[in-house]
Fold this protein.
Amino acid sequence: MSDMPLPFAVVPRGANTNTAPVAPLTDADRKPLTKKDVSADHPTWCPGCGDFSVLALYFKLIEKRRMHHEKITTVAGIGCSSRFPYFVQAHGAHFIHGRALPFASGVALSRPDLHVFVFGGDGDAFSIGGNHFTHTARKNVKLTYVVMDNNVYGLTKNQTSPTSPVGFKSKTDVWGAKDRPINPIKQAIFAGATFVARTTSTNPNHLLAMMEQAMDHDGFGFIQVLSECVEFYPGAFDNSTPRKGGVFAEVPKEHDVTDEYAAYRLGEELSPGKFGVFYKVQRPTKNANEAAIIADYQSKVAGLPPWQILKKSFDRMK
Ligand SMILES: Cc1ncc(C[n+]2csc(CCOP(=O)(O)OP(=O)(O)O)c2C)c(N)n1
Ligand code: SF4
Ligand SMILES: [Mg+2]
């Protein structure tokens, strides 16, 4: 809740807390943050991992959209991809495996001045976090969820993930995976996401464009980023990488992004499928719905802050 005092001080990592407070600068007065300003620890990903590209484009986005430290919020679960917040010199949380979305929802609902970005992997999103994915999508919480899909569990060293194709050999499927993989695009549309897109770490301009569009969307934005795990599933996305002989085919211009069934059919295409925005509609967000409830209640209780309204509700339940 925005006006509830926090029991701890929140400062960007590396910030000098001893300096006297200065008057807040307007965004126009402030230089855009460059990669140098927002890079934290050296990424510990394997050389060649697709996740590097997603991080580089996130830095570009921060610079291009003139986001500043106090507004950058990067949340993740657990996995190689989920190490993301460690590498961004701003506010963020590396949360529990599969539980990034509930945490991020709390931030997004209580801090309407922020745009929350959530990064994670295919296991994090669709396996252990599958139920959270469904419910965050159907509630249309305003945030951007970027799933770096490498079709494998990378951090735990090569287990079958929910997006691994049939036949994929891993430590958990030594004779080749038998189970039908989930289709993230169809899953997201079906669950109720209001912005659904696919991109790839090998096409930087496209990846940046998708992140920008998702950020501008007023609702739950989901992006599937094909991001190769060079260690445990090399070559997984060669069929969509032109320099490896693959085809990068964009969503046709005539596709109606508001047509749920058309989006679903387009999502049905087999790998590599199309790239771009499959689905985009406007629906009331959880944020707007909650804000309306709070405003309505505040009008009846002489402007109490949200946390006191909550406290009163809990007291009534005792
Ligand atoms: C509650 C819990 N269950 C299981 C694990 C072990 N674990 C850590 S990461 C991971 C899977 C990571 O795969 P994915 O989300 O696809 O991310 P990637 O490493 O491929 O980027 C698992 C099973 C954990 N850390 N916590
Ligand atoms: S194990 Fe795979 S996903 Fe993890 S850092 Fe290495 S290449 Fe990337
Ligand atoms: Mg993975």
